[in-house]
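Most newcomers find our protein records easier to grasp once they have seen one. There is nothing in a record beyond a sequence line and a structure line. Getting from the letters to the tokens is the skill we practise here. An example says more than a description, so a record of this kind follows:
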Amino acid sequence: MDRRPLPRILSSGSASLTRSREIARTAADNATDVLHPLITVTRGLRLLAGAGRQKWAATPRDRRGHVLFLVAACVLVVALIPYGPLLALITVMGAAAWRGRDRTPADTGPGEAGTARLQALYEALVPHFSVPEDPAPSFSHGGDWEKAFGTSYAFDGNGRLTRLQVSYPAYFTDGDPAARARVEQVLHAKSGRGREYHFTWDEESNQLLMTVLAALPTTIAAQRFVTAPGETVLGFTDADAVRRTVPVQDGDETRDASPVIWRTGARSTEPHLLIAGHPGSGATTLMRSLALQALQHGDVLVVEGGGSGEYGFLAGRDGVLAVERGLGGALATLEWAAHETERRLIAANRARQAGHPEPDDIRRPLWILLDRPSALGHLAAADGRQDPQELLEVPLRHGRAAGVTVVVSEQFDSLDGLTATVRTHTRARAVLGPADREQVEAVLGTRPHTTPPPDVPPGRGYTRLGGGPVLRLQVPATPDPYDDATSEAHRQAVLDLLPGGAPAVEEAVPDASPEAAPEAAGESVSVHTDQLVKTPAVAEG
């Protein structure tokens, strides 16, 4: 017997049912707010009627006739006097509203466990917020914590602090980062580890606000984001950190998320990016995400110093000019990129002088993605060849005017190998993976206002664009689709973003000489070499 298919409403209507339930719940909440006075009066009338029935049941039988006569006399008097029924109705409604009001006892303060926790936290802050010369210190051993904390605190269901506002004395050196760090460490330790805290210092009012941050979502995969040309989504951050949201597909539902937008191009103040992290921190994931977004409007050059083949899925795709893993191919590709930057500058300058718009062949953005340049630098030093980072000087210095964007990814233990030009011109920074506050400060230029997260998933870290604030960051999941450990959903999400074109097949390199064989075996063949040579490599004078 053939199995009958399920009705459509049961097989494909779950999303519609969910939305219907949400709409009904919202309508019920709004109706409750509008009808709250009527509900209060109705509850009061019910309570008054119940009290009347209880009073009548408690009245002896021999006295009930007298009570009925008294009630009838009162009703007659009210009916005969002017405006009597109206006044009686107002009186009854007022009594019902008073009787039906919500008399739930308000929370007068923390419980015994909460009071003990606040007192312990207060005692721990005494050495930092008190001096012997203060005649009336707000922080003293055995003092009252309500003077410092007031009522600006909140606890979760487990009795742990989720919010605390501290009023500290004016003589505390809140402008000293070291003094701030000591206080933040005490609050972090005493409020409970295993969570991420955010600290806001109001130096004008001498107030410190500590809040517990929710974990950033890790379920957002690579997808087409709603952005304008020249805008790239680095990842997602807290809702109150940015003023913009974009719709994203999070699993089976669509919701609004708060993105970290990095702007590139001629009007960008931070046209180049530096990514730092430990192995497995998600730096390569961010590089792949940037490559997929860049291919929507521009061309991409990929130079991989680690040689692990994390970008092999890009080979042969439209817009991917080259994917290089060897030293020789990397030097040739970066040399072409330097000449292409010069050519674009000269062509744009000539067009402006002649009063013409820029040529079409220089309008398409060019992205240079360089992963672990220090590894290539070590190989170049061993062979006595030029460091690939030296070829980035022209794209880094003049890339903004030429429409060239450079993204460099390096590990923490090799950051010292970056040249001064790379460190100077990569003003957009991202730190991914587990890192202490000193490491984050060394890359971003300032410490974050949050404590290090206890659990760091891949792609989790901090970012700072130029002189802006430090933001928490979670990179969209963009794994290598050819990796066996990749889930089918994430693999398909990445493959759907790839432009047309078949993956390139590396041709066998003929054995020209024994000396050339090792070098040829370690380098990948450039992809779309016709695109690299169709433009003059040397700029005309």
Q: What stands out?
A: The first strand starts at residue 153 and ends at 155. The CA atoms of residues 445 and 467 lie 9 Å apart. DSSP finds 17 helices and 16 strands in the chain. The two ends are 81 Å apart (CA to CA).
